[in-house]
Design brief:
globular, two-stranded antiparallel sheet, alpha/beta, 12 strands, 306 residues, TIM Barrel
Amino acid sequence: MKINNESHFNSCEYKKIVKFLKGFSLEITPFVADKIDNLSQFIKPSTTIFITFLPGSDYKETINTAKKIRLEGLNPAPHFAARSIPSKEMLEDYVSRITGEANVKKILIVGGAGKEQIGPYADTISLLETGIFDKYGINDIGIAGHPEGSPDIPDKEIKKSLILKNKFSETSDSRFFIVSQFCFDAEAILNWSIRINSEGNKIPIIIGLPGVAKLSTLIKYSLACGIGNSMNFLKKQGSNVLNLVKTQEPDKLVRKLALSEEFLKKNGIEGIHIYPLGGIRKSSEWAQGIIDENFKLTRDGFKVNY
């Protein structure tokens, strides 16, 4: 019997894309969460939902959002922004309540947007060194990764900080993981993972991807986050004004990364996190459509029916 090699190749690509998306996480702000009756209406049970903590936020709102997410059958994972925490007393109250009232076991620690420091914690290491997360049984601790650098932190400081976090992870009871800032360039993501691992990183990596959004929205968030060289991709797309209002999907980026399966495994890349810049429902339904195998391959990407 003659085998259709093209069909077989497409089938392999198809399976790799589905596998790549499985276990994806999302994120939400307390403000947006309050506007949605029930996230489980469009997000599958046990999905991890990170809860952002922006400058000026009230941690009690984050606690309430975590409780809501847990009650709806999902897995809340709140952010802790070091420079926005005013005291050790507040930190301990936050951790004790988030674990006690919402059964939180997974968190993400970041330095925080901007450089203003309102308390004793200048960075994520100073938060970790309090021992409070271990004390209250946090099992999984995420830290930030920067494939294209950070507008707030010099590259040398990022490298030094990651080495310190690796050393700390070896003494902690928690499992550490890196969640990278979103990026539009597959090569930049892959090269970054090679570089940090060659510099001594042993912490598993979760790749951050942009969700479904209008091009104008992607540009706005990219400028705010200072994502770097892959902004050139967005600028080229935006050279046609009509493209600014078109919905963009990260299918080409996902396909390139998914087909690098062996590379991902070799370099400790274990999953993806989707930044739902154009709305959490759109990004969730798009990703779930892939997992449900409800998509078709195109010339260099794929189209999801959602």
